[in-house]
Design goal:
- The structure is a single chain.
- With 293 residues, the chain is α+β, with helices and mostly antiparallel strands.
- It has two domains: 4-126 and 282-292, Diaminopimelate Epimerase, Chain A, domain 1 (Roll), CATH 3.10.310; 129-279, Diaminopimelate Epimerase, Chain A, domain 1, CATH 3.10.310.10.
- 23% of the residues lie in helices and 40% in strands.
- It has helices spanning 34-44, 59-63, 80-94, 136-143, 173-178, 183-191, 227-239; strands at 4-12, 21-26, 49-53, 65-71, 74-76, 98-103, 106-115, 118-124, 129-133, 157-160, 164-169, 197-202, 212-215, 217-218, 221-222, 249-253, 261-270, 273-292.
- An eight-stranded mixed β-barrel has the order 1-2-3-4-6-7-8-18. It has a two-stranded antiparallel ribbon with strand order 14-15.
- Strand 6 (98-103) and strand 7 (106-115) form a beta hairpin.
- Helix 4 (136-143) packs antiparallel against helix 6.
């Protein structure tokens, strides 16, 4: 007997359709097995697909919606644009301006407001954890870039709010945009490190609404928007004097793959340590569909 599962397809960290990072959300995935969720993620072939398991009473809003995030290659403990996009769908369905997701990394709250007539969501990520600092020459080799394109005045450092990223500061927007890192060389370096991915930053952006350009290359290509890296990035910026505490910093990403995203970030500073890392943006629904199994 056929089973049907409605889903919503959104563009996340975008105000305009066909920009930002794509996401498929299944608001009621009850009855799906792990193997089926993984197969559906391969079917959508997006960076991530999310599956919500509502309990159907007030506990969802009180304790958070149980949610699982699957990439094509496997399940993720946390990812930024799936958290924002899924919360957006659930907030509209429940009418609540605040929705929390219960993920593998814990409970992540997302608050929604209206800005310029559009719904804007902002999540509070887990407290940042700062890992090792990295050798500039070794990182340049792993990224296949000249040593002098990386800024030596601030540390290359691993930071995590759920997923560990090596934050790499480039000197200029041009040098970042022209870089052509390959995943196999990066993966070889990362296997021996304390991080899973690189997140590359330039201290300027093309969009006048943004202050920073970012790129994130991974096994599936290049990510249009990486909310799980934007949180570590703003924590790194605040810790190393690249942003002031509570300063709103908009990160532009995805330009090089023709899916521009704008990721809004800010973080506090307490006793010399970044805290209350917040990452937000807009979402645009583009498809309502039904999957039949």
């Amino acid at each position: 007997m056929a089973r049907t599962y409605p889903f919503v397809w959104l563009d996340v960290f975008a105000r305009t359709p066909l920009e930002g990072n794509q996401l498929a959300v299944f608001p009621d995935a009850r009855g799906l097995s792990d193997a089926e969720m993984q197969a559906i993620a391969r079917e959508t072939h997006l960076s991530e697909t999310t599956f919500v398991f509502p309990e159907g009473d007030s506990s969802d809003l009180e304790h958070g919606f149980a949610t699982r995030i699957f990439a094509v290659f496997g399940e993720m403990p946390f990812a930024g644009h799936p958290t924002l996009g899924t919360a957006n769908v659930l907030s509209q369905r429940t009418g609540s301006p605040e929705v929390s997701l219960r993920l593998k990394v814990g409970r992540i709250p997302v608050q929604f407001t209206v800005r310029d007539g559009l719904r804007f969501g902002e999540m509070v990520q887990n407290e940042p954890e700062f890992g090792r600092t990295h050798d500039l020459t070794a990182v340049a080799k792993a990224l296949d870039v000249e040593r002098d394109v990386i800024d030596p005045t601030v540390p290359i450092q691993t930071v995590s709010t759920g997923v560990p990223f090596v934050i790499v500061p480039f000197r200029t927007l041009d040098s970042l945009s022209r870089a052509k890192p390959s995943w196999p060389a990066m993966e070889e370096y990362l296997r021996a490190s304390d991080a899973r991915f690189f997140y590359l930053l330039a201290p300027e952006a093309g969009d006048p609404a943004a202050q920073v350009r970012a790129r994130m290359v991974f096994s599936g290509g290049e990510d249009p928007a990486t909310g799980s890296a934007a949180g570590p990035a703003i924590a790194w910026m605040v810790r190393h004097g690249r942003a002031k505490p509570e300063q709103s910093v908009v990160i532009e990403q995805g330009v090089e793959v023709f899916r521009k995203s704008l990721i809004h970030t800010r973080a506090a500073l307490w006793d010399g340590r970044p805290t209350r890392v917040r990452v937000g943006g807009y979402c645009v629904p583009v498809i309502d569909g039904v999957l039949t199994l």
